[in-house]
Amino acid sequence: MKKSTALKLLPYIFPVLFMGIVSSCKKDINSTSNTSTGKTLTVQGTGKYDNGFFLINEGWFTHGTGTVSFYDYGTGAITDSVFTKENPGKTLDPASSTLQFGTIFNDQLYLVSKVGGPLVVTDSHTLKEINRIAAKSTNDFRAFVGIDASKGLISTGSGIFPVNLQTLALGTKLTSVTGQVGDMIKAGNYVFVLSASSGVVVLDASTNAVVKTIAGMLCAFARTPDGAIWAAGGTQLVRIDPATLGVTTVTVPFTINGSWAAWHPGSITASTTENAIFIAKNASFSGGTQVYKYTSTNSASFTTPFITVPTGRELYGAGVAYDPAHNQVVINTVHSGFTTNFSFNDLVFYDATTGAQINDIAYIGYYFPSVAVFH
Q: How many angstroms separate the CA atoms of 184 and 203, rounded?
């Protein structure tokens, strides 16, 4: 993991030589759709941003803040900078921050920035801003999880803070977890958090006391329809029962890496129609080309990749997501080779049952996609 920071900086240093070719500040994505199935994608909902999903983009580090893009099921088009378009005069500045995480909780989209950026809450149907924790140099947020209607938790580069969801005020930092904390998920009476130093730490959702620790975990979290919580690290994939906290371990024949040196959400997701996990075989930060599908009923789950991205591309950010509205695996890729190659993006859709490619949408710009967010 030592090399990941240096590798991640490469695309930020060199593309300045090519600004005449690709703009770092593109506000509308030029995309091309290569549809292989012709099927229409629709979901129920009348809100402006109900019929699709969001793409949370890091942005080109130090050259401009990250952006929120929206993929529309009906048109098959990607629209960039939807947050700033819906909120004139409001930004996700400073430009030195990195928009890294998003999630929908109680119909509100939480946008979370690292490196001094804000925490912004919007209506998930209209994207109109509701509230924010203002940008500040001491902010270093990672992820947000809602606990109930009045409280949530936000992880940071140095621990976890409670959040009052009515006022969006931060409380006193928890003493139960220290150091860098990333992904979090609530299940039943517990909150599962991923710690850089301790692996998975299970907190009592009421008291925030530590009730269990699972060492060695680097990539998290996913939840299957049976309610189980999944995490991974090294050569282990673990299933955690959210009621008993019992752990079942599956041996993986390759190394599962995390992203602590330049954090992004974990490259793991789950189906909502079957008890299946999709996990990327990443390098020490990102950059994987294969995604595996694990089910307990398939003993050969890790023998052959479920998805191999087209030659010359690699995953970026979380890279892998599951679309519950259409039973699809959604993959974010950039072209391999760093520098200007990272300005060439593809949003690729695969059938979550067969692994067959459904669609491939190419678009240009230094977006650095971090994670997809679904209703």
A: 10
